Amino acid sequence: MSLLQHYFSANFNKSFALHSDTTLQTRAIRIINIFRFILSLVFVVFYAYADKLDLVNNDDSSMFFSLALAYMIFSLGLLIVTPFKSPFFVAFHPIQIVIDILFIILMMHAAGGIQSGLGLLLIISIVTASLVSDGRLALFYAAVATIGLLLEQTYQIAHWQLSVSSYTQPAMLSLSCFATASLAYSLAKRILQSEALASSRDVDLKNLAQVNELITQEMQDGVLVVDQDLNIRHHNAQAEQLLALKFEVNNVLNLAQSAPEIAIMLSEWIQNSDYDKELTTQINGKQLNLRIEPVSHQNRQQGAVIFIQDWSKIQSAAQQAKLAALGRLTANIAHEIRNPLSAISHANELLQEEQNLSTANARILQIIADNTQRINQIIKDVLELNRRDRTQQEKINLQTFIEDFHHQFCVIEKIPATHFVLNISKTTRHFLFDSHHLAQILWNLCKNGWEHSRKKAGSLQLSCRETYRSVRDLTPVLQFEVIDDGTGIAESDRNKLFEPFYTTKSTGNGLGLYISRELAQPNNADLSYLPLQHGSAFVLQVKNTN
Amino acid sequence: MSQKPGCLIVDDEADIRELLVMTLERMNIETFSASCVEEAKQMLGLRRYALCLTDMQMPDGNGLDLLAFINEHHSGLPVAVITAHGSADNAVSALKAGAFDYLSKPISLKQLRPLVESALKLSNKSNTRHLIHYKSAATPNKLIMSA
After folding, report:
1. Minimum CA–CA partner of B15 in chain A
2. Closest CA to B33 of B9, B55, B67, B51
3. Mean pLDDT of B37-43
4. In the structure, how many helices (H) and strands (E) does chain A have?
5. Are B105 and A335 in contact (CB under 8 A)?
6. Complex ipTM value
7. What share of chain A is helix, strand, coil (3-state, %, to 5)?
8. Which architecture, in CATH terms, is A391-542?
9. Where are the domains of chain A?
C-alpha cells in the first residue's frame, strides 16, 4: 500500500522535472536579454568611434545611431520585464527574436548593407533563439532572416542600381542561416532527449531511494549509513531511538559527535580489513550488537552501512522462549509423576493403617507421607503455571475481594486478624484480573511474608492504593504492597528471588515467587521486590484499572 | 449380611487399581475392576453395581465417555471420577456430566472412604429391591486376577 503511494509521489517528481525545465528556459532567455543589451551597447560605442574612424561611409550614420539607441531601449525594457517570470513573456519570446532579426537587418542596412558584416550577427541570434525554443522555431527564424536579407538587398539594388549578381552574398548568408538553424534544431532535439533520459533516471533514483528508505524503516534493526567523513547520510527510526540521536531538518549529523563509541569502532573496522567479528557496545544503558557492511567492497573508506541490534531485547526474547519451553516440559513431567506418586501415597496410607506398627516403622511411614506431600505440592505449583496462558480476566471489586482474601487467609493459615493488617484506599473500586490468579499471587506473597515476619501484631501488612508506575513513567497503576517486618533479603540474593527453585527455606520448593510473577504477567501486572529498612515489601502493580 | 454391595473400579494403571481394590476390600466391599473403558462397558452388563470409580484418562477413551454411557444404560449407578490434572476444569465438567463426586490424585484415604460410603448409602436406598436380580453374576476374585 505504502509502496504504491511512493510510486505515485514518484510521478509527481516527473511533473516537477518538467516544471524545472521551463525555469531553465526563462534563465536562457535572460541570458539572451543580457547578450542583446551588450550588443546594443557595442553598437552605440561602435557608432561613437565609427564617426571618427570614418568607417560608416554613407550618410545613414544618424539612422544607425537612432536604431542602436532604440535597440538598447528595447533590450533594457526586456531586461527589466523578464524577471517577473510571467508565462506571457515566454510565449512572447518568438516575437522578441523576430524583432531582434529586424533590428539587426535594419542596422546592417544603415551600416551599408551586407558588406558591413553585421548580417553575421543573425546567425548568433538564430542559434541561441532556436536552442531556447527547443529547435521548434529555428527554421522560422531562418526564413524571417532570409526574407529580411533579400528585401534589404533588393532595396539596395533598387537604390544604388547594383547588378543582380550582388544577391549572391545575402543568399549565401541566408543559406548559412538555414544551415545553422537546422543544426540547432537537431542539436536541441538531442539535448531534449538526453534531458528526458536524465530526468527519468532521476525519477528512478528517487524511487529507489524511497524504496530503500521504506525497507530500512520497516526493519527491526537500526540502520545507519555513513560516508567517508563519518557523516550520517541515512538512518531509520530504530537507529534514532536506539542511539537517542537528535536529527534536525537539513542538518547532517556526524557520527563522531552523536555516537562516539560507534565512531571509534568504525574507524578500527576501517583500518583492519580482517576486523569482521560481531561488535558489541553499551550505549544509553542498552547492550547493542553492531554489524558493519562496507558500501564498496574494495575500499572500506568509502562509507559503510551499520546495522544495530538491541542485544538485551534479543536476549530477553530468547530467555522468554526458553522459559516457555521449560514450562511445558516441567508441566508434562509433573503430570507424568502424578500417577506413580498417587500410588506411593495410597500404598503408604494403607500401610499406616496396619495395627501393631513399631514406632520406628510408623515414623518411617510418616516420613514417606510427608515427602510425597511435598512432591505433590511442587507438582501442583508447576501445573498451576500451565494455567497462566488461560487467564480469565474479570472485573474485581477491590474492597470485597481483599476482605474475603484477608478472612480466608487468617482462617486457613491460623493467623490472628490483628497480626495481618489491611490498608485499602477507597478511590479504586474495580480492576481487571483473573481472580484465581490474584488470590494465588497474594496468597504466596502473604504466606512468604508471614513466615519471615516476627509474627506479632501488625507484622504483616497488605496495602492497596492508586499511584504511578514510577517517577518517570506516569502510567496510573493500582499497587498492592505486601510488607513484613522480617530481616529482609540479602542484596546478593535479590536478583535470584524470582528464579524457579530458588529458596532459603528447607521446606520450600522455591516456586512461589516465580509462579507469582509468571501469573502476574498475563494479567498485565508487574511483581517486584522493594527492600525496606526493616523488612521487605513485594509490590504488585496492576495496569488494568478503571 | 446376605449381599455385599459391588463396586466397579476402572483405571489403566495396574498399581493404582490394585490399591483401590485393597482399600475397598478392607471396607468389606466386593470390588470388580476393569483396565479400560471397553472392558468396563462389558462388565457393566454382567451385574449390578453400587458404585463406579473411574479414572479420567484411559488409552481407549475418556472417563466422561464412560460416565455418559452409564447415565444412558445404567442410570442410577453413582459414578465418582478420579481426576489426574488436579485442575478444577476436569472436575467441573465431570460433575456437569452427572458424576456423583470426584477425587483428585494423589488419592487420600481420608477422601476416598467417606466418598465410597456415602455413594453406597445412596445406592442402597434407591436400589435395594433391584439387587436381588443381579445375584452373583461373576465371582469377584476371578476378575481381579484377570485384570
Report:
1. A343
2. B9
3. 89
4. 15, 12
5. no
6. 0.75
7. 65, 15, 20
8. 2-Layer Sandwich (3.30)
9. 2-201, 221-312, 315-387, 391-542
